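Cross-posted from the bioinformatics board.
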Amino acid sequence: MTKPEKLIVDGKRLDGRGLNELRPIRFKAGVLKRADGSCYLEFGGNKVMAAVYGPREVHPRHLQNASRAIVRYRYNMAAFSVEERKRPGPDRRSIEISKVSREALESVIMQELYPRSAIDIFVEILQADAGTRVAGINAASVALADAGIPMRCLVSACAVGKVDGELVLDLNKDEDNYGQADLPVAMNQFGEITLCQMDGHMTEEEFGRALDMAIEGCKKLHQMQRQALIEKYGEMVSPAEEAHADGGEANE
Amino acid sequence: MEREIVVPGDLLGEDPKLAGSGTYVQGGRVYSANYGLVDRRTNIRVIPLSGRYIPARGDLVIGKVVDVTFSNWIIDINSPYEGLLHVSEYPERVDPANMSKCLHVGELIIARVADVDPSMKVELTMRDEHLKVLKQGRVVDISHVKIPRVIGRNGSMISMLKKDLNVSIFVGQNGRIWLKGDEKRVDIAIRAIFKIEHEAHTSGLTDKIKEFISKELEELRNTK
């Protein structure tokens, strides 16, 4: 790929978006049958699958924590997810992303409710098109809720970058490769920022504005995440008949 | 009654005194901690749509023996935590040396959760009425959050299943269900249970299942 002459033409970006627009995004909750919770996400050109297992027993045993559940997050990019075939397996980049993504989600999970257990999150990037770490966090957050894991709230994430001297929301591949800065941000719905990384250069004033743009983006994503979970059960909702389960009474 | 689906972090109310299960309080407001349906009848609680079984004292569960140690049987109770059944909690006196003669690995039992401590050590007992070793019949696993629907209001669903199909059924709170009776009828019952699990969030389920069973019974008679 060669560098495009200009990344912003007449206030529009190369893919036709305005400076403040997200790429087309589609969440689908509960797509994997064998996982406790799952989510498939298309985020522009990114295709991401997240699966959550747990709470479940911890192996190896020495990782157990007697007072809370441990959270494990594995971010993995499929070898075929990028244009130049990626060497399969964990590398420094994916280990770093796993760590920061785990920390972004850990703060909202009510870990103290499940001592000595593990919550495993697997995020597979099936197709990559810039912004995979934020896509992974968004998908994992929906998958965690789908698994029935108690959380304080959902976590949403999106990136802001600088291309051709302008701040733009949600970078695509060209903008990521040839832009001047990239700032992925994750936050929960109470406005607490749980992930903030940056590469490239921004002035202090730009950083402030970029953060505000990212926060707006996260709010939009939160709506979509919520919608995806509600849609899973559609309109057919209305169970009520409660037998507060004493198995014994109902049996014999 | 229409019920509202909520996701973690949704604001449910302003009165912290009403906070029930599946919710938490922050800054004097009640928020949802779970993905589920809100119930506002007495207090505010969220009925989860998914999740693992977490043992609580007094629950009746169906367990599977996975290991035998010096004085305990280790029981899988379909939960992140394993159950411990001490020799002294077996209905009869057992010599620790003969433990695997009474209960060997792979055997299924009905047990009661005697105690759960803060570190989630789960102690089971079999010293009570209708707690026994399951020698015959079949066991199926469903999601434990669907168990209240299998039982139905005041046991309406379960008693209908038992009556219409003439099979014995025991429902464990950990999502395992034991059935015994005529094989063909047990097949129907299992299919009905999976149908309940699948459609647990819809209304008028008891009638739907009743219809399903009578249709299946009809087919059974015709093939004979």
